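**Sequence with structure:**
===
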Amino acid sequence: MDLYYRKYTGTLKAADYIDWATGQLHMNTLEIKKLASMKEDRQLNGFEVEKMFEEAMASIRSDAPSKYHCFEHHFKRLHAQLLLPNENALIILKEIYDFTVTHELFEEQMKWQEVSDAADDFQYGDNFYGYTKEKIHEMILGNARKLWHGRISDIAFDEFVGQKIIVVDPEANLIIQLEKGAIVIECPWRIRSIEGIAIGETDVRYNSSEWRTVKELLVGKTIQDVQMFENCSFLIIQFDDLFLDLFHASTFYDGWTLTGEGGTYIFSMHGGSIA
């Protein structure tokens, strides 16, 4: 991702391709070995090295990530640096804000606007509010954590909204059959109302008769909304006045799957990534 980000922003150097290949030698392909061997060449031909890189990518059957995903990845890495106290927080904040302006990410810009204005006032303005460096760092840290944990995925779940639950099948995993799809759950879950938890995975694990309660709660309900918190793989499905929370809790096994008409297939992979 980093290499392609530099490629898309015009900051990539021929040596960057070779550094990439050196880090990929475990793939053990001839094309990668040839590219990595160019490290000793002090007069690199940019076009030749780029062609060798393309051949190396083809040898491992890897496609180039989109410009959007590279920019998203870069922005996420900048953001992640502010989740802990950081002496360079003001520099990183400026880089984040400039990035949102340069690439016209208006929504993201607005999320950082207030703390960016405060930092500018502290550094370059009359500092009317008497900000200190410690206070600005505290504001940056708080904003970064709030945005990180509350970030909603841009995956569209529209086709599931409005569908009713037809059957709840607990035979193997918890399977919720919809009118035109299904939800397969292999991870921790709970069903809650606005008043608290109604029932959860642990309840039925130790008392199988509680599956009846799950069926009574869900069958006939209609999906009103689906939200996924991106950075913690936390999925919330609202069924009328109830909420089903799914939390991926494994580095080795898949967590949940949503299937729909026309081949729709969304699932949380091992480690929590979404595919």
